[in-house]
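DUF2007 domain-containing protein
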Amino acid sequence: MKSDYIKVFGGNNTESNRVEQLLRENDISPIVKSESESARLAGFGTPLPHIAEIYVHEDEEAKALELISQLDWEE
């Protein structure tokens, strides 16, 4: 089954929150997948806590990647 959503970012929760906010400010609706949050809700632990992935619709991939590439991670 082919998904219409593409992973554009993966990182810790702090970085992912920053990317999510940037995308939303630019009218892109990201989907955030957090393994640790899913495991917490299910009552399990995860070997990679605080890691999140961000997906966007394939029509928004180019714009999202351009925005992410312009982030200054030194702030």
